[in-house]
Request: fold
Amino acid sequence: MSTPVIAFVGAGNMAASIIGGLVDAGHPAQRIRAADPHAETLQRLSATAPVIACGDNNEAVAGADVVILAVKPQVMATVCADIAPALANGNTLVISIAAGITLESMQGWLGETTAIVRCMPNTPALLGCGASALYASAQVSAQQQEWAASILDAVGITEWVESEADLDPVTALSGSGPAYFFLFMEAMIDAAVEQGLPRDTATRLTLQTCLGASRMALENEVDLAELRRRVTSPGGTTQAAVESFESSGLRDLVGSAMQAAADRARAMAKEMG
Ligand SMILES: NC(=O)C1=CN([C@@H]2O[C@H](COP(=O)(O)OP(=O)(O)OC[C@H]3O[C@@H](n4cnc5c(N)ncnc54)[C@H](O)[C@@H]3O)[C@@H](O)[C@H]2O)C=CC1
Ligand SMILES: O=C(O)[C@@H]1CCC=N1
Reply:
């Protein structure tokens, strides 16, 4: 399979994360194009990877095998209207990573015959540790499906979901999820500082603990509850903390937060579709 020419429309946080991961995984930077109205954003990207920086969106998408739409949902309709004529040849795969924007809306803006994959990636793609879910429209060919998978596989794990609606809970889980762990780590560091530890010591211990816990969960055969039990000595310190979390309703808090994220994805589909 030849290496596809990939055009990123929008070169912000998420595009930079995927591009960084792709280049690290060996995708030639000269087969990656990026367009963004902010010259500084393109300069920052070019400083990290020698991709082809394009003056406008149509220059980027012309003749590309894959176009990755990495703009905010709010500008998606305008961006699609701008590039739709260039995609009319029908050979290009469009991958949208926008939260909430439905295939129906994309198909309306780009044309009914356009092959579109909706993808929900996350920012750890930058380190090759991303988690992405994908859903393909009926127009996507087997080769295009392979391209989409190989691009996202290069930056982490991928899951194809069975229905487009599954992308809303995915957005609430892995799309937004890195921010939840950052927030939890911020809270742990602040609590340790409150108890008297220097902030840099608290930060190093927190980050390594998060990494260690994640690796144990990934690399052990046992489930999360069992790993937790092994830390929790009866009558000990962990039990005191876990009981405090449970009685304060941590699980309900997490459930409500993820419900809010999924509801927001559905509302965005209505507002911007
Ligand atoms: N940041 C994240 O963790 C994740 C973001 N997403 C989705 O990725 C998309 C991009 O999000 P971010 O990268 O965080 O936003 P961002 O704001 O960092 O990047 C968007 C980029 O689009 C550019 N842009 C604005 N108007 C444009 C136009 N007309 N043509 C071309 N480029 C234009 C902006 O200058 C900016 O650099 C969003 O739709 C978001 O829902 C999906 C998963 C995770
Ligand atoms: O916050 C957002 O809307 C985007 C989608 C998932 C992560 N960031």
